[in-house]
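hey so i finally got around to running the thing on that chain from the lab meeting. sorry it took forever, my laptop kept dying and i had to restart like 3 times. anyway pasting the input first so we r on the same page abt which one it is
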Amino acid sequence: YLAAILASAMAFFGARGAFVAGELDWMIGAIPVIEGAVLALILRSLLSLEPQGQRDLGRLALVAGAALAFVTVAIPLQLKQQWITIGWALEGAALAWVYRRIPHRGLHNWGLALLGAVFVRLALNPEVLVYEPRGSMRIFNWYLYAYGLVAACLIAGGALLAPRRNKQGALPVPPLLYTR
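ok and heres what got predicted. didnt touch it at all, straight out
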């Protein structure tokens, strides 16, 4: 599994160079999506090889995280404009979702770190307001899209990463209040 992840990373850079040299920039996002799909197949085979109680969670978490990372890399590669923040937010929420299925602390920590980085990038960076000029539409523009999608990912990540013991009845208290 380590060899497959490292080979995927090397193949990504080689294929990216080939796509750029072949003037196929318009579909460069397909490279990491295909590599993520291959790693997802490897993850599926790992799940079928080991019985449920004897699975190596570290191995599963690494392969799942690498597959998600490749798919997330496709977003800023293909779309070019300030999409790295949205990619990080989607990856953080996806890692939180995977953490619910593969309870490995690395998935939890990476998901939390990505969501934290996204919050810092959008909330504490004054330059974010000059990255993209505001469009002609006052409300439905890049800012609403970016902040709305990131907020949805932060809420989803908070709900998925909340400890199960912090519940009041059926309602998870920390995701509702977002205070600690």
